[in-house]
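Before the break, one more example. Copy the sequence into your notebook; we will annotate it together after we see the structure.
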Amino acid sequence: TNAGGMDVDVSLTATCVLVKPNPVMVGGTAVFFGNGVVPGATRITVYSLSGEQVVTLDSAGSDEISWDIPSDTAPGIYVYTHQSPAEKGIGKLTIIRQFPTWSIHPLKFP
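Here is what the structure looks like once it is written out:
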């Protein structure tokens, strides 16, 4: 019960760092963005699933951080951490060799 009869207002601001496109192609550009990116004060570190550090990126004066993925990067799932005065967090990024092409073949009946 609320014996004191007091109301409490709570205000939350959701912050986050996301990546687009996801998946991204080898040789393409991944862009990290969101309210969690503080210009000049955000660091993104990308790791392989084996724990090897792949790249560390720092924000300059922008609210987006770009990574030009080298053409020799292995396709797979990568984990990124982000740290800024706004928050710390972790996310996933998938790198693929190429986008799949789908072809539909007509059904053949005997």
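Residues 25 and 98 are 6 Å apart (CA to CA). The beta strands are 18-20, 24-25, 29-33, 43-48, 53-58, 64-68, 76-83, 88-96. Try to locate both features in your own notes.
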